[in-house]
Design goal:
With about 375 residues, the protein is α/β, with parallel strands linked by helices. The chain contains 18 helices and 8 strands.
């Protein structure tokens, strides 16, 4: 998330402080979080970003689950100001070590929110399956029962990308619901079939078109490999896909290493038999149109389980906060808009669709009104997460 106009944030904070120190403090805390999330710097912005923050210690542990132990990390602030939140990132091989997830956890923790990040195996393997929802359920229940993390047995639940929608599904399950104080979905989905159809075709549920990001289409290929190639080619195809994904992540931090990994992916592709070779060629050349057309007939088999779509399975009653980038081309923003309508039947819902952020990290210059809406959103989250 980036906010290019620093003066916009500063102006809003000055106005807040003018309203009155006591009533403004919660909003200044929210503005402070926005500055940290955006990575803004400058003499005044650094002071704002550090407002009521303190040191954080981390420790690794394991969380028991029905499919085995999950690696987890606790971010413990020196001074607690809010209840603990379970934070889960999207599909990524680095799991709880993924740099953006680490930064988000730290940005929350320095202001007094204890954070637990949990590593669910299928996320590491770029898989979207009911195992994820089960893992989230197990993690929520375990964290909520740890006296050192949840004194009253209730926590916040925060999911990013596909983990956002699945966190909502998990939060509505009978064993979990009493332990959930609120849920945040950041760039999450409502209907997995609709999202995958969009990734394959660019067609959104309302009939409008948006060019999908190749990342989501490649994740779809990973999840449909058994339907796309003969059984003896599945493992080889998935190894090649993983190499491509690794290179794509490296491209954000180390161009030289990324180039070497992309070269390795192309070498692996050349050695694959058909039809794996053609599919990986689509991946390497980012031919979303051709790959999407090949994948589309297999969408139903991948997405049919209702545990993967909050619009089809949720009964959540805790407050839900839906944050979405207006130009998201992995999970389009219409997903959060449609999900809000469904959730409002059983839960209080706060929806913010903003051009300040997108799934693919493309930003636009913000207006003061957009920044204010983002500050108000995080202020509402803080109120739901107060001790």
């Amino acid at each position: 998330m980036r906010l290019p106009r620093k003066r916009t944030v500063l102006l809003l904070v000055v106005v807040l402080l003018a309203v009155g120190a006591w009533t403004a403090v919660p909003y200044v805390r929210a503005a402070s979080l926005v500055v940290r999330l955006a990575g803004l710097h400058g003499p005044w912005l650094d002071r704002l970003g550090a407002f009521q923050t303190g040191p954080v210690t981390t420790r690794d542990l394991t969380i028991p689950g029905r499919r085995g132990a999950m690696r987890a990390r606790v971010y413990e602030p020196a001074q607690r100001r809010a209840r603990t939140v379970l934070l889960t990132g999207g599909v990524h091989a680095k799991g709880i070590d993924e740099p953006r997830l680490v930064k988000l956890a730290g940005d929350l923790a320095v202001a007094g929110t204890p954070v637990v990040t949990a590593e669910i195996d299928d996320l590491l393997r770029y898989r979207i399956s009911p195992n994820l929802t089960d893992g989230l359920e197990d993690a929520i229940v375990w964290v909520s029962r740890e006296p050192s993390l949840a004194g009253d047995g209730r926590i916040g639940v925060f999911g990013v990308s596909f983990a956002g929608g699945l966190s909502i599904v998990a939060a509505g399950r009978p064993a979990v619901a009493p332990h959930v104080a609120y849920v945040i979905s950041f760039g999450g989905h409502s209907s997995l079939p609709d999202v995958v159809t969009f990734l394959c075709t660019g067609r959104q549920p309302d009939g409008t078109h948006r060019d999908p990001h190749d990342y989501g289409v490649v994740v779809t290929l990973m999840n449909t490999a058994e339907q796309m190639v003969p059984a003896d080619q599945v493992d080889g195809l998935r190894v090649a896909i993983t190499s491509f994904m690794t290179a794509s992540h490296l491209a954000m931090v180390d161009q030289k290493a990324a180039a070497a990994e992309f070269s390795r992916t192309r070498e692996m592709t050349a050695a694959l038999p058909e039809p794996s070779r053609t599919l990986m060629t689509y991946v390497n050349t980012r031919n979303v149109k051709a790959l999407g057309a090949a994948l589309l007939p297999h969408v139903a088999a991948f997405t049919e389980d209702s545990a993967l779509s909050p619009a089809r399975s949720t009964t959540v009653t805790a407050p839900v906060f839906l944050l979405h980038g207006a130009d998201d081309n992995v999970v389009p923003a219409i997903e959060s808009r449609r999900l809000a309508v469904v959730l409002e039947r059983t839960a209080p819902v706060h929806l913010l669709v903003t051009s300040l952020i997108t799934h693919a990290e493309v930003d636009r210059p913000p207006t003061a009104g957009e920044v204010w809406e983002l500050i108000r959103f995080w202020r509402a989250v803080a109120a739901a997460g107060s001790l």
